[in-house]
Design brief:
By secondary structure, this protein is α+β, with helices and mostly antiparallel strands. The chain folds into three domains: 2-47; 50-228 and 352-439, Zn peptidases (Aminopeptidase); 231-348, Alpha-Beta Plaits. 37% of the residues lie in helices and 21% in strands. The chain has an eight-stranded mixed β-sheet. A four-stranded antiparallel β-sheet has the order 11-13-9-14, with helices on one face. The relative contact order is 0.16.
Length: 444
């Protein structure tokens, strides 16, 4: 209506007054810019009132990179379970809490479905972020920015919202569903899934199949990981002679560390070449061992030659790598850098089970069928990192890393981690159908 009135005025006055004509043209330009921008913002703004989005943002706003906030996160989940009417339990097999909420199936004798995620997130440098990393701010494109938006607070809320729908629709599910929330995944699971799978409490869950964190992908195919690469965290201590900072002796710790780095990077370069050769393969991550030195410490004072350098390496083994061979190689790196060096393994996973992704796995068949019916492609991949799924697979429980984060730039452990609100909500639709199918897989 307003635009029509403008054109009436434009035709009436522009014939006789060039200045008026110019003013009206400028006004039209401003009007169109403001209108278009308003439509772009408003396209997503209404999602902020969606209950699932509100819950997702509330969960993201809990800074669980800090141990003191884990209890706040636990209280969040206790409240959700009470609100939905799900019985829950909290276990602490090694100190840190593990939350389990249950939707009981009509046939509890059937092995259950575990829906796993972790509450803890990695730390952040807030100065690097576009928006505060625990504000869960949604921008004009509908992207919600927060640590945990991809890894992995999203899937926990999607599990919960899918179960809400199934409950509200009175859908009968033969198999029981367990939502499990870990609080110690990012630091290696020593107080989480690694020990939980060996407890009586875990055995009573009678888990027959599990979903865990999946992969973020810029494509439109959902990726399901069936094996994780084994994670090693290694602390190297490289030693050498010390002295006054004005001297230049041979054999300092830094000299030896330089030799060590050259040796390590010679091997790393061979693995990068393999990575590049398999870059287009969904199972390419299986072929190479990744190496990154992420922490280096050393020195006592600016004018004292350091006698000791410590370096912590993050290594993810190729799926066919023999741990003994890798250990032998690591020892050779130390010898090349001198005779007084040492190594400590902070994490040393030597086993990583594999889940079948073919017709022999009825749960895989169910997921493929469900997603195909929704017009979605599912593709098996090797996970380049390691997750709690490894400990489940190592117990003989078929487990898939599964997530619905398609058309999304992967930013796990990176700055500006985000998830688009429509991608998140679509994920709830997908999980609702996937869980319905999984819970109806007949007894073998």
């Amino acid at each position: 209506m307003l635009l029509n009135q403008y054109f009436t005025c434009y035709v009436k006055f522009s014939r006789s007054n060039v200045n008026v004509k110019m003013v009206l043209l400028i006004w039209l330009s401003v009007f169109l810019v403001l209108t278009c921008n308003g439509q772009r913002v408003n396209k997503y703004e209404h999602y902020l009132d969606d209950p699932a989005v509100k819950l997702f943002r509330e969960y993201l706003q809990i800074d669980t990179s800090k141990a003191e906030n884990i209890q706040t996160g636990l209280d969040f989940w206790i409240h959700q379970a009470n609100d939905v009417g799900l019985p829950y339990a909290v276990y602490s097999p090694a100190g840190k809490p593990i939350f389990v909420a249950t939707l009981e199936g009509s046939d509890p004798s059937l092995p259950s479905i575990m829906l796993n995620s972790h509450m803890d997130v990695v730390t952040v440098d807030a100065s690097e972020w576009k928006y505060p990393p625990f504000a869960a701010y949604m921008d004009e494109n509908g992207d919600i920015y927060a640590r945990g938006a991809q890894d992995t607070k999203d899937i926990a809320i999607q599990y919960l919202e899918a179960i809400k729908r199934l409950k509200n629709d009175n859908v009968t599910l033969p198999r029981t569903l367990h939502i499990t929330i870990m609080t110690d995944e990012e630091s290696g699971s020593a107080q989480g899934m690694r020990v939980f799978v060996n407890t009586t409490e875990f055995k009573t869950l009678n888990v027959g199949f599990a979903l865990d964190e999946g992969q973020t992908t810029p494509g439109d195919t959902i990726l399901a990981s069936f094996v994780d690469k084994r994670a090693w965290s290694i602390c190297f201590t490289i030693r050498g002679v010390g002295g006054h900072g004005s001297l230049m002796p041979d054999g300092t710790a830094m000299d030896n560390f330089h030799t060590f780095l050259n040796t390590v990077y010679d091997y790393r370069d061979t693995q990068k070449a393999i990575l590049k050769s398999v870059a287009n393969s969904t199972v390419g991550a299986a072929a190479y061992t990744s190496i990154n030195i992420n922490i280096v410490k050393g020195g006592l004072a600016k004018n004292v030659i350091a006698t000791e350098i410590k370096a912590i390496m993050d290594m993810r083994l190729a799926t066919d790598a023999n741990p003994k061979d890798i250990e032998t190689m690591i020892n050779s790196w130390l010898r090349a850098a001198g005779n007084n060096n040492s190594v400590t393994y902070l994490r040393h996973d030597t086993e990583s089970g594999i889940t079948s992704v073919d017709s022999t796995n009825p749960f895989w068949v169910s997921m493929q069928s469900t997603l195909s019916g929704m017009g979605i492609r599912l593709e098996p991949v090797v996970k380049a990192a390691m997750s709690d799924a490894t400990y489940l697979r190592n117990k003989g429980i078929p487990t898939l890393g599964f997530a619905t984060k398609t058309k999304t730039i992967p930013r796990l452990h990176a700055k500006d981690e985000y998830q688009n609100v429509e991608t998140f909500l679509r994920g709830i639709d997908i999980y609702t159908e996937v869980l319905k199918g999984l819970a109806n897989v007949p007894s073998s």
